[in-house]
């Protein structure tokens, strides 16, 4: 990039990744340039469910907050657009006639029409791996909490049942004994999807002495074999004691974890989903849980978010439910902005495309 060129940036943060943190990151990216920054806060007006039916004129932008018109009204003359959850549709890209680069501080570019960005020769930067540690931590935490019956045991103590059982004339150990759980060592831990998060989960599970089973049809078996025993998806569901899902929310993955697969699980097995709700057949999961065909589940994501109070899941004692918090951490705002800064900086400071998401495709199109 020519530092003699004045750069106009539009920066849009929200409640999760603050505008002020994105502005500070953008300033460091543009150090040495003559620049001006316009900004506004995106209102997180609804859950980022992929089931939203809003007509924003671009079906490829599926997980977002706000409306593209908010960007369109300010995009004139903008060279660099920096966003988090704002929808960067084909209409936004068409209106941004001076756009050179777009930065989105998310791992998956579900709020940006990357194909349209690439067709226009605009360089796109994202924040890969920003959720690797918190999501993998929660996955392992779920496995431990499930197999050791942590939440049920917690209620047992807080509701006074422990004291009541032991203070009887003849102490009762009946409920207490139901909290006896599995040890993780040598248990088969199935990981579906070996992206950055799946690999980290596999490493942490192996560190606990678990026998890791892996499935990812898009990776070479030699690479997969570095993380565990390579299986088919069916083999993984048949043999694993724990199954965790780490695949992207693309259309081809919708409902891929089917009724047939759930029915192949061991009665003693546990299911974990911290990816996206629409990847699984939620009704089929509810069915096997209600009938006791599997031991339990831990879910952070759902087909409809927030999870309706009428969902059968909330009444099940063998399920742990959390409110789509896997990727959240105390420094989510500063951390996300910092990762995006790291991918954009080489382009603006070194004329390097090494960290650009779509540079190879742009090169092909030229």
From TrEMBL:
User: PROSITE patterns per the record?
Assistant: D_2_HYDROXYACID_DH_2, D_2_HYDROXYACID_DH_3
Q: Which family does it belong to?
A: Belongs to the D-isomer specific 2-hydroxyacid dehydrogenase family.
Protein's UniProt keywords contain Oxidoreductase? yes
A molecular function annotated in GO for this UniProt entry is: NAD binding
- Tell me which residues make up the D-isomer specific 2-hydroxyacid dehydrogenase NAD-binding domain: 141-326
Q: Does the keyword Transmembrane helix apply?
A: no
Q: Name one Pfam family in it.
A: 2-Hacid_dh_C
Which protein are we looking at?
Answer: D-3-phosphoglycerate dehydrogenase
Q: SUPFAM superfamilies, from UniProt?
A: Formate/glycerate dehydrogenase catalytic domain-like, NAD(P)-binding Rossmann-fold domains
**Which keywords does the record carry?**
NAD, Oxidoreductase
Q: Which PANTHER family match?
A: D-ISOMER SPECIFIC 2-HYDROXYACID DEHYDROGENASE FAMILY PROTEIN (AFU_ORTHOLOGUE AFUA_6G10090) (PTHR42789)
